[in-house]
Design goal:
Elements (H helix, E strand, L loop, with lengths): L5 E6 L4 E8 L2 E9 L11 H23 L8 E7 L3 H18 L2 E6 H8 L11 E6 L4 E7 L3 E7 L5 H11 L6 H9 L22 H13 L2 H10 L1 H27 L3 E5 L6 H14 L2 E3 L3 H4 L4 H12 L22
Parallel strand pairs: 1-4, 4-5, 6-9, 9-10
Antiparallel strand pairs: 1-2, 2-3, 6-7, 7-8
Helix pairs in contact: 1-2, 3-11, 4-5, 4-6, 4-8, 5-8, 8-9
Bound molecules: 5'-O-[(R)-(carboxyoxy)(hydroxy)phosphoryl]adenosine and zinc ion.
Zinc ion (ZN) binds next to helix 3.
C-alpha cells in the first residue's frame, strides 16, 4: 500500500467556489471561481452566493482534477471547509464533498477555514518547527495567533469590531470604488501620497485591533468637506485618500506585530488572508522583518485570498501529524472558532 496522499480540497465558505488538488503537500492545481454578482450590492448576498456555489462546484472540481491530471479514483481524501462562513455556502461544499468522498470510498476531512489560512504561507514548504506568529487579516477575521507544533493555536489578539478587510471594503464603498474594496484601494493607493491626511490610529492594550473608528473618521472627513469640495477632492485626490487610509490600517497592523514579536521572541511570522495581498503591507512587513531580525512569510497572492489549495494542504498537514479531529463526518459550523489546544 502506498503512503502517498492525494487530496481534493473544496472551499465554499463565502463567495468563492474553489477546488484544488494537492499531492504529498505539493499543489497540482488550484481553481477559483469568484462571484462577481455581489459587487453591485457592495457586499456578499448569502442567498445568491449559495446558489452560485451550486451551479459552479461541479465544473470547478472537474477543472481542478483535469489540470492536475488526476483521476478521481486516485484520490486518497477529500478536504472541505466546515466553517466559519455563510451557512448556505458551507452546506454546498460540505454536501458535495461528503457525497463525493462516499462515492469514492475515501475519508472526508473537515477543515477550519482559518486553519487553512494559517497553513497557506507554508504551501510548497513545511511548517516552522518552533512556535511562530500568524496574523490572519481577511474580510471576516483579524486575529493574531501564536502557533505551536502540532497545530495548537493560542489567540493573542483579535478585532474588537470590523475586520481589516471589512474596513477596506467599507471605505471603498464610501469612496464608491467598488467591491471588494481591498484590491481597488491597493491599486489607487499605489499612485497616492500616504501623508496627504493623517487618519487616527487606534492603539489598544494587548494585541487587539479596532478599525471601525478609522472607517468613521474617513466618513467624517469626507462629510466635513461639504459637497463641492468633496466632489473636487474625489475627482483629483482619490489616490491620496486611499493611500492615507491604507497607511493607517498598515500602521496599526505593523504596530501590533512589532510588539508581539518583541514580547514572544518568535523567529518566524506569517501574514495570511486576503489583506496580506496588499502591496504596502507586504512592503512594510519586509522592512519590519529586517528591523527585528525575523523571517516574514506571506503566501503568493493566489493563496492570500480564499482558495482550496490551503484547505487541501491543511488536511495534508493534519493527516501527516495524525490529527483527524473532530471524528466523524464534518457538518457546517458557521461560527466555528479557531480551536485552541492545550
Ligand atoms: O481571505 P479572503 O479572500 O476572504 C475572507 O476569508 O474574508 O479576504 C477577502 C478580503 C476582502 O475584504 C478584500 O477587500 C481584502 O481581503 N483584500 C485586500 C486585498 N485583496 C483582498 N485588502 C487589501 N489589499 C488587497 N490587495
Ligand atoms: Zn478567508
Amino acid at each position: 500500500m502506498s503512503n502517498d496522499s492525494l487530496i481534493l480540497g473544496i472551499e465554499s465558505s463565502c463567495d468563492d467556489t474553489a477546488a484544488a488538488v494537492v499531492a504529498n503537500g505539493k499543489v497540482l492545481s488550484s481553481e477559483i471561481s469568484s462571484q462577481q454578482m455581489h459587487s453591485r450590492f457592495g457586499g456578499v448576498v448569502p442567498e445568491l452566493a449559495s446558489r452560485a456555489h451550486q451551479r459552479r462546484i461541479v465544473p470547478v472540481v472537474r477543472t481542478a482534477l483535469r489540470k492536475a491530471d488526476v483521476a478521481p479514483s486516485d484520490l486518497t481524501a477529500v478536504a472541505v471547509t466546515r466553517g466559519p462562513g455563510l451557512a448556505g455556502s458551507l452546506l454546498v461544499g460540505l454536501g458535495f464533498a461528503r457525497a463525493y468522498a462516499f462515492g469514492l470510498g475515501v475519508q472526508v476531512v473537515g477543515i477550519n477555514h482559518l486553519e487553512g489560512h494559517i497553513c497557506s504561507a507554508s504551501i510548497g514548504r513545511s511548517l516552522p518547527t518552533h512556535p511562530w506568529l500568524c496574523l490572519i487579516v481577511s474580510g471576516g477575521h483579524t486575529q493574531l495567533v501564536f502557533v505551536e507544533q502540532g497545530l495548537s493555536f493560542r489567540i493573542l489578539g483579535t478585532t474588537r469590531d470590523d475586520a481589516a478587510g471589512e474596513a477596506f471594503d467599507k471605505v471603498a464603498r464610501l469612496l464608491d470604488i467598488g467591491y471588494p474594496g481591498g484590491p481597488a484601494i491597493d491599486r489607487l493607493a499605489a499612485q497616492g501620497d500616504p501623508a496627504f491626511h493623517r487618519f487616527p490610529r487606534a492603539r489598544l492594550d494587548g494585541y487587539d485591533f479596532s478599525f471601525s473608528g478609522l472607517k468613521t473618521s474617513v466618513l467624517y472627513y469626507l462629510n466635513g468637506l461639504g459637497e463641492k469640495k468633496r466632489t473636487a477632492l474625489m475627482r483629483r485626490r482619490l489616490p491620496d485618500i486611499c493611500a492615507a487610509f491604507q497607511e493607517a490600517v498598515v500602521d496599526m497592523l505593523i504596530d501590533v506585530l512589532h510588539r508581539a514579536i518583541g514580547e514572544t521572541g518568535v523567529r518566524d511570522v506569517h501574514i495570511v488572508g486576503g489583506v496580506s495581498a496588499n502591496a504596502r503591507l507586504r512592503q512594510r512587513t519586509e522592512a519590519l522583518g529586517e528591523t527585528c531580525g525575523v523571517r516574514m512569510h506571506m503566501p503568493p497572492p493566489a493563496y492570500c485570498i480564499d482558495n482550496a489549495a490551503m484547505i487541501a494542504f491543511a488536511a495534508h498537514i493534519r493527516l501527516s501529524i495524525g490529527r483527524t479531529d473532530p471524528p466523524g463526518n464534518p457538518v457546517a459550523e458557521p461560527n466555528l472558532p479557531l480551536a485552541t489546544f492545550a
